Amino acid sequence: MVASPGIKEGTNLKAACPEGFERHGTGCYKALESNASWPEAKVYCSVLGGDLAQIEDDVENTIIMGLISRLHVSKDDEYFWLDGSDILSENEWRWMGQKGASQPMTFTNWRQGQPDNGWGSEHCLEIVHDKWNDDRCELPRSFICEAQ
After folding, report:
1. What residues does the C-type lectin domain cover (predicted)?
2. CA distances (Å), 139 to each of 46, 71, 121, 132, in order?
3. Cα 93 → chain centroid
């Protein structure tokens, strides 16, 4: 057996996830039904050993949608925070990361007409109806945490 880079041979990948997270590919994910603002969700994920989820490709987007659909029969009634924001510079959407380690988004899945900064202060990324939307960071939402 050949181990993946950075993972010791014989390592049980499932055991490497923080408690309550589930492994999908190289990431560990946890969907939380809660009413937290975007900053609160970032802190909560950090306490759990991760950060808000970053979606870097269509496969990861499908994984996140699977987590949400397992919580709800319909994806239409729930909004979940992700790690994206344009709070540093309007319309420059980035994955914020931790401790200032932001990076530009290379994959997006915006709803038609989004992002639109509709209220003049929509700087945080949510996923709803299987597409992305910008919204006000102080709104209470559920959220997806990711850990490596």
Report:
1. 24-146
2. 19, 20, 11, 16
3. 14
Residue type, 147: A
Strands 80-85 and 141-147: parallel
Mean pLDDT on 46-62 = 94
**pLDDT tens, position by position, 63-83:** 998 888 887 655 556 899 999
The percent helix, strand, coil of the chain (3-state, each to 5) is: 20, 30, 50
Angstrom distance (rounded) from CA 69 to CA 48: 22
Q: Yes or no: say if 134 and 117 are a contact pair by the CB < 8 Å rule.
A: yes
pTM: 0.85
Residue 106 carries which side chain, given as an amino acid letter?
T
d(CA 13, CA 123): 35
Round to whole Å and give the CA distance between 33 and 13.
25
CA atoms within 13 A on the CB side of 87: 17
User: Could you tell me the CATH superfamily of domain 21-147?
Assistant: Mannose-Binding Protein A, subunit A (3.10.100.10)
Domain parsing of the chain, residue ranges: 21-147
Q: How many CB atoms lie within 10 A of CB 137?
A: 21
